[in-house]
Amino acid sequence: MTAVISLPASLDEHTFEQVFTDLAATPLGSKVLVDARKVRWASPFGLTALLCLPQSRPDDTMSFALPELHDTLTYWQRAGFVHHAASVYELHGDVPRQRAEHERNVLLEVTPITESDDVHAVVGRIQQKATDILHGQLHLDAAVTGAFGMTLSEACQNIVEHAGMGGWVAVQTYNYAKTLGRRVVQIAVCDAGVGFRRSLESSPSHRRSDRWGDASALEDAVVRAQSRFRHGDAGRGQGLAGIRRFIGRWNGKLSVRSGSARIVIAQGWDDDAPMTEGLAPFPGAQMQILIPERLEGAAPARPRGAASSTRTRPAR
Amino acid sequence: MTMHIDLGTVLRGTVCDLYSNLVTRPTGAAVRTAIERQVGEVGIPVVTTIDFSQVQLLDFSCADEIVAKLLLQYVDEASPRGYLTFRGLADSHLDPIESVLERHGLALVSWHEGEAELFGHVDEDERMHWEVVRDHGPVSVSAAASILAVEERHTGDQFTRLAKRRLIMPRDDGYTVPGTVRGMS
In sequence order, which residues have a C-beta less than 8 Å from that of residue A207 and are 6 or more positions away? Predict the structure, then answer.
C-alpha cells in the first residue's frame, strides 16, 4: 500500500510543517507518493525541502506527482526543480520540454551542494544577476551584493562542513504577501543530514545538560556561534553569526529548522515565534534567509560594524 | 626587506585558475599555506603585504583562515616573522575581516591610497598612540608623549604593546607604521 502525502496549494516553511508531520507518521519501509498535483506555488524553501524528503528515507521508494497547473510546472522546470527531482524521486506526470528561457526572479536555480567547489560555483553564478535583482528590483543599496554573496557562501558551507551528505540551495524573489506585502529575496539551503544537535554532540568539548535537545542545539549554534570545530579552533562558528549580522543590517529574517525545533531571528515586521519545539522530527537542517525590498523613503541599511572599535572608513 | 603577495594570483595558482572569490574554508586554508610557503622560500622579509585588490568576494571562513590565522602567527612572541600589512581592502572585505579580528582580539594595518589604516580590536588610547606614529613617524616615545600630552612612561607602555602586536615597528630611534616608505611620514 502506498502512503500519499498531499501537498498544500501554497508551499512555504509554514505549510511545509504538515508535510513533515505526515512523513513522520508514515512508517519506514512504506512506499510514499508525494502528491504535488494541486500545488500552485512553492517558495525556494519548499522546493529544496521537497528534494530532502527522499534523502531522509534512503531505503524507501518515493514517488512524486508533478503539479497539474501548467504555469506552476513550467516555473518549477525553469527553477531547476524538476531535473533534480527526477534524480531522487520516481516522477509521475508530464514533464514539459526544457526551454532556454530564464525566470526573471530566479537568482539561482535549485542546485545541489556537496563539496566546496559547488559553493564556489554558486557564488560565482549569482554575482552577475545579484546586482540586477537586489539593486534593480528590490531597491537595496549596491553594497548588499557582496554581503549577499558572502551570506550565500556561509549558508552553503554548513552543508559541506556539517551535514555529512549533500543538500540543496535555491535563491529567488517573490511577493511576500503575508505580513509584509512586498517583494523579498529568499535564500533556502536544505539538507537531510546530521543536524545541529548531533553535530554539536560530536565535539570533544560538548557537555550534555538536562535541557539538551534540538532547540538548545539551535540556540548554541545560531545565537552563541558554537561549532563542533570550535574546540581547538577559536575561529569556527562565525558563519551563522555573520548571517545574523547580514539580516540585522538589511531588515531580514533567518529561520533554521533542525530535528524537532525551529529558531527564528527576525526584525519587527515578522511575527514568527523565536523558538518552536515539539515539531515533527526531520533530520538535517533547513535554513532560509529573507531580505525584503526596500521601499522608497524607508530608512537605509544600518551601518556595518556598530559593535567594533574600528573607526569608520571615510567615503571614497 | 619587503614582500608583496597578490591574493588573486595565489588563489588562481593554488586552487583554481577560474576563481576570483575567496570563499570556503578549504580555499582559505590552501591560500594561507601557499602564502606561508612563499614567505618561507624567500626567507623572512621584514614587511609582508597581502594584496586583496583582485579579490571580489571574501567570506568569513576565508577571512579567518587567511587574515586571522596569519596574523596569529605574526603576533606569536616566539615568531621571528616580521610584520604583516594589507592593501586593496574594499569596503565589502571589511565586514568579514573585522568580525574575525574581533573574535581573535587581533588588529591589522592596511594601506589604502597611500595612507595607513588600523582595523580591529584596539581601544581608544591604543588607537590614539598608533595614529601619532602614523602621522609623525618615525617618532620617539618622548616626542609622541609630548604630542599627546601624556606621561612618557604611559606612551612607552603603549608603544611596547603596539610593537608586540606588530602594529608599529622600531626605526631610527623611534617607531613607524609597518610599510611606511623611508623619507615619507
Answer: none
Assign 3-class secondary structure to chain B.
Answer: CEEEEEHHHHHHHHCCCCCCCECCHHHHHHHHHHHHHHHHHHCCCCEEEEECCCCCCECHHHHHHHHHHHHHHHHCCCCCCCEEEEECCCHHHHHHHHHHHHHHCCEEEEEECCEEEEEECCCHHHHHHHHHHHHHCCECHHHHHHHHCCCHHHHHHHHHHHHHCCCCEEECCEEECCCCCCCCC
Picking from A264, A241, A262, the residue whose alpha carbon sits closest to that of residue A254 is A264
| Residue A199 distance to chain B (closest CA, Å) | 18
Closest CA to B180 of B118, B116, B132: B116
Amino acid sitting at position A229: F
Q: Is A127 close to B56, i.e. CB distance below 8 A?
A: yes
ipTM of the complex: 0.85
> Given A123, A146, A242, which is nearest B92 (Cβ)?
A146
Span A12-24, pLDDT tens digits? 999 999 999 999 9
